[in-house]
């Protein structure tokens, strides 16, 4: 099998489909002087990670300001880094499957494992795939979640939500949506096609995934970004959504919307987010302190309950504190102590890690996703 990883800035731009001129550099964060660097931490992250519910206590503790450039999707992240001058970012929040590409392109620093509380992590997360090169650490897992079938529970009875085959139900024509990112959507269809390892598929299996997804196209009512996914589920435009999970429906539930996520019989995918310290970071020590802050039990509870989108957390002491301070949220997310919880889903093999394609190039998956959207 071939694991095709491009190593250069130029190949990052080609592979992810982001052309050099596609995002004006003026939209990026300005470069900082030395004095400013001592007073601020700049993060490249998914939306929500630099909001007050997450960073206010850190800012007060260290007398600094946290600023962020937000992105949606790992491909967008790679494009933004490729177009940014060195030193633009201190911390990079990466989807776990992209860490090896960041390392290969020399965009991130090697970390000291002793700086981080891995002894408090569940064993499954102490040596997380792709974050290490032998004994060398390059990224620290901070949160994760599961992707399954998101649906409106007033419009679709949960008894029908047992398989990804739901998306082809004739009653849902025009009411099925996609979160507009190829990795989660193609991974779910690959699971539906019976591929135990959904991202490591041969040419015949890949052709089968493409054929199956193309057959879904008449059902699709739209392709949605982060905000559009929220609104289309909330207002009933979309009844069932492919490619997302509780990170979306959990927020809507807080607002009283009748939506939820179910892991179907074919299994689900795990998204995972990790922090890397950027090469040429202006505030590397502050970046290390922030990772320590967010991986502490208190930081993990903040991350689990993040207003922008909730998540599961890898720190067992974080679980204990969440059960103590917010047992309702611990129950809602399945982070229960002494009884069945989300770790059982992982240990029973119901959840597969989301990955980059192994036997095809990322460009090939991107190209097919564009073809599918335009069909």
TrEMBL record:
Keywords annotated in UniProt: Periplasm, Signal, Transport
Gene Ontology biological process: polyamine transport
GO cellular component, one term: periplasmic space
Pfam families the record matches: SBP_bac_8
Database matches in PANTHER family: SPERMIDINE/PUTRESCINE-BINDING PERIPLASMIC PROTEIN, SPERMIDINE_PUTRESCINE-BINDING PERIPLASMIC PROTEIN
High-level lineage: Bacteria, Pseudomonadati, Pseudomonadota, Gammaproteobacteria, Pseudomonadales
Record organism: Pseudomonas panipatensis
Subcellular location: Periplasm
Protein name: Spermidine/putrescine transport system substrate-binding protein
An example Gene Ontology molecular-function term: polyamine binding
InterPro entries (alphabetical): SBP, Sperm_putr-bd, TAT_signal
């Amino acid at each position: 099998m071939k694991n095709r990883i491009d190593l250069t800035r130029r190949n990052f731009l080609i592979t992810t489909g982001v052309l050099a001129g596609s995002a004006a550099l003026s939209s990026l964060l300005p470069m900082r002087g030395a004095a400013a660097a001592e007073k601020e931490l700049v993060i490249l992250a998914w939306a929500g990670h630099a909001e007050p519910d997450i960073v206010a206590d850190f800012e007060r503790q260290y007398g600094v300001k946290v600023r962020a450039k937000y992105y949606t999707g790992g491909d967008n992240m790679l494009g933004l880094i490729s177009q940014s001058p060195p030193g633009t970012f201190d911390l990079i929040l990466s989807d776990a499957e992209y860490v090896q590409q960041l390392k290969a392109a020399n965009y991130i620093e090697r970390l000291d494992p002793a700086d981080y509380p891995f002894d408090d992590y569940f064993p499954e997360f102490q040596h997380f795939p792709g974050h290490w090169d032998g004994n060398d650490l390059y990224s620290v897992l901070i949160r994760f979640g599961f992707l399954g079938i998101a649906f409106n529970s007033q419009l679709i009875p949960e008894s029908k939500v047992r398989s990804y085959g739901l998306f082809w139900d004739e009653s849902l024509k025009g009411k099925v949506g996609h979160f507009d990112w190829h990795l989660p959507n193609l991974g779910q269809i690959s699971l539906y096609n019976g591929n135990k390892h959904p991202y490591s598929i041969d040419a015949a299996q890949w052709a089968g995934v493409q054929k199956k997804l193309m057959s879904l196209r008449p059902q699709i009512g739209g392709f949605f970004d982060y905000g559009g996914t929220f609104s289309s589920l909330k207002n009933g435009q979309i009844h069932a959504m492919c490619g997302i999970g509780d990170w979306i429906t959990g927020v809507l539930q807080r607002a009283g919307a009748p939506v939820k996520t179910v892991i179907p019989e074919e299994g689900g995918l795990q998204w995972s987010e990790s922090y890397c310290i950027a090469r040429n970071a202006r505030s590397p020590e502050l970046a290390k302190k922030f990772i320590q802050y967010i991986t502490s039990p208190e930081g993990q509870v903040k991350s689990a309950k993040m207003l922008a989108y909730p998540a599961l957390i890898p720190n067992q002491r974080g679980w204990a504190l969440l059960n103590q301070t917010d047992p309702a949220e611990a129950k809602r997310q399945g982070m229960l102590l002494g009884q069945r919880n989300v770790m059982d889903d992982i240990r029973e093999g119901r959840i597969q890690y989301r990955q980059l394609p192994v036997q095809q190039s990322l460009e090939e998956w991107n190209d097919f996703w564009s073809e599918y959207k335009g069909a």
